[in-house]
Write a structure and sequence with these properties.
Number of strands: 12
Shape: elongated
Structural class: alpha/beta
Order of helices and strands: EHEHEHEHHEHHEHHEEHHHHEHHEEHHE
Radius of gyration: 25 Å
Strand content: 5-15%
Amino acid sequence: MASREREPGVLAGYRVLDCSIAMAGPFAAQRLGDLGADVVKVEPVTGEWQRHAAAGGAGGNRINVSFLSLNRNKRSLAVDLKDPAGKEVLRRLVTTADVFLQNYRPGVADRLGVDYASLAAINPSLVYVSISGYGEDGPYARRPGQDLLLQAMSGAMLSSGRAGEAPRAAGQYLVDAVTASTAFEGVLAALLHRERTGEGQLVTVNMLDAVTTLQMQELSVHTVGGLPQTRSAEPHAHVYIRSPYGAFQTSDGYLVLAFPPLKRLGEILGEDTFLAMEDEEHGWTHRDEIFARTAARLLTRPSRHWLDAFAAAGIWAGPVYGYADLVQDPQIRHNGTFVTYEHPTEGSVTVPGFPYKFSATPPRIDRGAPLVGEHTREVLSEAGLAEGEIEELLAAGAVTETAS
């Protein structure tokens, strides 16, 4: 019997055609590949855009870190979809696919003949996922769907920080990441529906709705509770949570503190003014005063002193990590959050692993991010193209391949 580590993933047997670029689409497809799906990255003969745009300037030997991080467990088919022969190759592949994922600009899928109606006519059971910035149509449909622009539009950037100061963006590609997770969920739900009914369908996901619905609680406080989104003079971490709540400097670093009982906090800090305060009254009406007094007291001792005292009192507090601290954290190590594998061209690679665990069909890394067209010949052969046809396509430049 094969070892548990080599058992197929939970999505083994499903084929995904990943025609997406940048982060949200490729990240969603990678999640599917981590669970065992056969993900074929269909990219231009010059390579997907992210191969040429290294985040943070982090290059590599033959694959930059940005592309490497979002395209493991995929095979690469390099094909020119503007070439009629290349377009026909993709249509052939659609007949064997379960999922088609794209984030083309509005109108591009129609022009290429790879819109949902065209592909569903070839394969009615296809789950077709279209990711956009603002929606498939509407007044903003043609706006650029870029992470920072969507963060700003979502309202999230005005839920923290000081009143009167410029809002601050999240330190992650937040909208791209939540859109990827939303698309991933959509694929799984549509595949479950297909298993029950045999019916494929169109799944549309847009970045604006993804980041808006992420704020379910905050926006409900506004729309249902009628409370305005009002920032304080002090750099409070969330407009809808009472003080003190946020990041504070200590004598040797930083910590975060989350709405502690004011009397207990006053006892630990030696701040007598807190002893007569009520959490759900003064925590709102004296939000700036409480924040400022807390900040002044915390500056007097090192982080470890305060964290130990808060832990003993049952107060919610924690350290502020950088990435170097995170990767060394004992819980992160215990969880196996990061995984290390050998890449044929990039060597030993350590990256975040998987956000889920399965007892019977665990996710795994079977291959690192591919070179451009590394699997062109292999994928086309599996799709039923004869060796002579493949050679003709290669000679004509409709598809390309790169040796590993």
